[in-house]
């Protein structure tokens, strides 16, 4: 693992690291904020999964998460959104290929060899973090924005016991029923929709739900709201009687100005779950 | 004036606007955050002047100022750092020409026609804001980072009564004595150093000081600290017995991670001055 940069930040350190990923078969870069408390021992960690077109860097510089993570003594990891590099397949569209891994393990050509983002985020990167940093793997929470909100919700529901809490900003909520989803799931997983179900937060909510608290914010004026389909997830949450706070925020759109506005609420929400018990 | 974007942000609006500048003789773009309180009437305003290579956008997306400005009910304006466009002179170096206006009125060719950033920030943009937005021009404060800290300090000291408070993050503090300064001042203002003095915060501090509180933060591990010359300004402040808080922050560098870490302190500092009396 190589240190690309480390900057003092809110009393802790904002680092950027690169490593050779055996899962994605390419170099992968991630950001990690460690609060001051990490000098004294392992700290809880919040995963932040980013949206389409993003790298590890966007949320790290624009979402304002460190402000509140430092206040709560929580680490935040910012993984990249896909494998990258010259030997990695790509597509001319912004929403397929590099920058658009969709947090699945691709089974279809040309994506299968590198696009294994599910395993990367669920297995390889957690192990790397536990080995190299003062992270308490028993206290993890997860959030994300847009495609990353989709990733956060589906990982949390598919890995019971892993995350104490899950939240999302404007998540892609029903990808099997929208163009942000059908296009990518068919490309990465093939046409058999049975393989898609675990990657649809609304279907997973109907099927299994989440054993912990959920917080979801979506801008009522989100310019992509028809692709997000928040109504499908809201209905599924209500049908299941899932512990959840589901908010539509008037006037807000899909931007990082929206994300940063509600970041304090999300980090505080996760801190309550991470420090409870 | 043209609206390029408006995003809901911390209960207010983060806008980006473009206008034909008579001062710079080109189109100029700026960001303006208006807190929710601006819907009910004029609000105080904090000027944020950015550093070398920045546009209006960098601090607007990375400095975290809106978080605290919203809490205090203060507007924040993010001007660009220079004139721009095809007809505007430029230089291959990052620290001269476009993106490096240095907050002076150039008198030398090829810069003179467009590089009038002092008048733009001191005269044209304030008038435009007062005419178009709910801004209380009697309650203004100013801050900035690096070259923008230089701009904030020199504008505040040269325009007595204009700003109630001034702060700076890692300001270029003694440009007549460092390569970040001598190069630009000679290019824009010519070789007669008498014309440079009003653009040197340390010289201005010796000459006139500031009738109000000052807050300055510089990272003790700033990678450009030899170019900033904080010692010159610290000495001048102490000699004058100027009301000031001058802090060296251990471990911090020149990045926006440094700026955002101390942004709450700076906005709170300005709020006290803006809401006092």
UniProtKB/TrEMBL annotation, chains A, B:
Enzyme class: hydrolase
Assigned EC number: 3.1.2.12
Catalyzed reactions per annotation: S-formylglutathione + H2O = formate + glutathione + H(+)
Alphabetized GO MF terms: S-formylglutathione hydrolase activity
Entries under InterPro entries matching the protein: AB_hydrolase_fold (IPR029058), Esterase-like (IPR000801), S-formylglutathione_hydrol (IPR014186)
Domain of life: Bacteria
Signal peptide boundaries: none
Keywords, in A-Z order: Hydrolase, Serine esterase
PANTHER family tied to this protein: S-FORMYLGLUTATHIONE HYDROLASE, S-FORMYLGLUTATHIONE HYDROLASE YEIG
Family: Belongs to the esterase D family.
Function description: Serine hydrolase involved in the detoxification of formaldehyde.
Database matches in NCBIfam families: fghA_ester_D
Protein name: S-formylglutathione hydrolase
Organism, as annotated: Ruegeria haliotis
Gene expressing this chain: fghA
């Amino acid at each position: 693992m190589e240190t690309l940069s480390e900057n003092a930040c809110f009393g802790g350190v904002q680092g950027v690291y690169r490593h050779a990923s055996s899962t994605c078969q390419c170099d992968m870069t991630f950001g990690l904020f460690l609060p001051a408390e990490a000098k004294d021992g392992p700290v809880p960690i919040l995963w932040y999964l980013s949206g389409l077109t993003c790298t590890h860097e966007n949320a790290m510089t624009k979402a304002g998460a460190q402000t509140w993570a430092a206040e709560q003594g929580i680490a935040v990891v910012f993984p990249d959104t896909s494998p990258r590099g010259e030997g990695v397949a790509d597509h001319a569209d912004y929403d397929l290929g590099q920058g658009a891994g969709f947090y699945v393990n691709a089974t279809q050509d040309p994506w299968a060899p590198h696009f294994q983002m599910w395993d990367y985020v669920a297995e390889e990167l957690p192990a790397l973090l536990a080995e190299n940093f003062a992270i308490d793997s028993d206290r993890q929470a997860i959030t994300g924005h847009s495609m990353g909100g989709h990733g956060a919700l589906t990982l949390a529901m598919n890995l019971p016991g892993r995350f104490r809490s899950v939240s999302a900003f404007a998540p892609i909520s029903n990808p099997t029923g929208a163009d942000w989803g059908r296009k990518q799931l068919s490309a990465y997983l093939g046409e058999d929709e049975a393989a898609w179900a675990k990657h649809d937060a609304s279907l997973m909510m109907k099927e299994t739900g989440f054993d912990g608290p959920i917080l979801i914010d979506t801008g009522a004026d989100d310019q992509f709201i028809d692709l997000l389909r928040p109504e499908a997830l809201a209905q599924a949450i209500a049908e299941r009687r899932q512990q959840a706070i589901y908010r539509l925020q008037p006037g807000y759109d899909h931007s990082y100005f929206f994300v940063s506005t509600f970041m304090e609420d999300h980090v505080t929400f996760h801190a309550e779950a991470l420090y409870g018990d």
